[in-house]
Design goal:
Layout lengths: L10 H9 L18 E7 L2 E6 L9 H14 L4 E6 L12 H10 L1 E2 L28 E5 L7 E6 L5 E5 L3
Parallel strand pairs: 2-3, 4-7
Antiparallel strand pairs: 1-2, 5-6, 6-7
């Protein structure tokens, strides 16, 4: 189908497109869409409701994300915008897109393994992490507590680099 004969994007598509430009304040190379934080988008009679699920209930970036989401949707032409925070179902690292996982790695953060979310974050769940710089599996968990709730610190014995891992949750 030629570009000129495509049907116009739906209102919901337009909102999703606007959300693709909203970055995670703690990992600015990822959008909230790539992080899987956006649970749902609804548009009805010009009113937009965005439901977002933060990575952690106590996420310190929650208010910044809500404000950024609202701003982006208003910039896309909507005046009546509500951004609701929801926790059911809870966010898991399995919601990070494939593009998001690659961007994490390119940024120097080891992405969580696929299909690992939904469980408790334990030291064994953080073992065997490949280095995002040299891809060696010869790594050691330095601390389960990283600079944010969603990260752990590892050390690569092969390239001698410390690196962070996005925790599998």
């Amino acid at each position: 189908m030629a570009a000129s004969s495509r049907p116009p994007a739906t209102e919901v598509d337009r909102v999703w497109k606007a959300l693709e430009g909203v970055t995670d304040p703690e990992i600015p190379v990822l959008s909230v869409v790539e992080m899987g934080i956006i649970a749902d988008v609804a548009v009805r009679d010009g009113q937009v409701r965005v439901r977002m699920t933060p990575t952690f209930a106590g996420c310190p970036a929650l208010d910044v994300m809500r404000e950024s989401i609202g701003h982006a949707v208003r910039a896309a032409g909507y005046e009546d915008v509500a951004v609701d925070v929801v926790f059911d179902p809870p966010w898991t690292s399995d919601r990070i897109s494939a593009v998001g996982r690659q961007k994490l790695k390119d940024y120097g953060l080891a992405p969580p393994a696929q299909n690992c979310g939904g469980g408790r974050v334990t030291e064994s769940a953080l073992a065997g992490v490949s280095c995002p710089y040299c891809e060696s599996a010869d790594t050691t968990l330095e601390s389960i507590f990283g600079p944010t709730l969603c990260r752990a610190i590892h050390y690569c014995n092969a390239c001698r680099q410390s690196f962070e891992q996005f925790k599998p949750v």
